[in-house]
Design brief:
The protein has about 100 residues and is mainly beta. It has one domain. The protein contains one helix and eight strands; from the N terminus they run αββββββββ. It has a four-stranded antiparallel beta sheet with strand order 1-2-3-4, covered by helices on one side. A hairpin with a 2-residue loop joins strand 3 and strand 4.
Length: about 100
């Protein structure tokens, strides 16, 4: 399960950056914090800003397992965006969970 989660996160990072090396951005709900990532020469990079001020400057985004770097020599083969609006039953205090991220 751990490898599945890591693989999914890696796929998410790589698929969000298109072949033209544009910057992909994920913002907080109030849009003050921005996480940006991009690919240059087969390597993933990221940075974090708050209100336009760098909090984490350009840094390599590296995932590794047992010494093997999974983010080396990345290749973008497709990019897509989509919206999520789903509900599902859960146990506990609430009868239903809602997955509806803010746009």
């Amino acid at each position: 399960m751990r490898l599945y989660k890591i693989g999914f996160m890696l796929w998410l990072c790589v698929s969000a950056v298109n072949a033209l090396a544009q910057i992909a951005t994920l913002k907080s709900p109030d849009e003050k914090i921005a996480f940006q990532w991009w690919m240059t020469e087969g390597r993933l990079y990221f940075e974090v800003t708050k209100a336009g001020v760098p909090v984490i400057e350009k840094s390599p985004l590296v995932f590794s397992i047992d010494g093997k770097v999974l983010t080396a020599d990345c290749t973008v083969f497709a990019s897509q965006s989509y919206e999520v609006n789903e509900t599902y039953a859960v146990r506990g205090v609430h009868a239903q969970a809602v997955n509806q991220p803010m746009a």
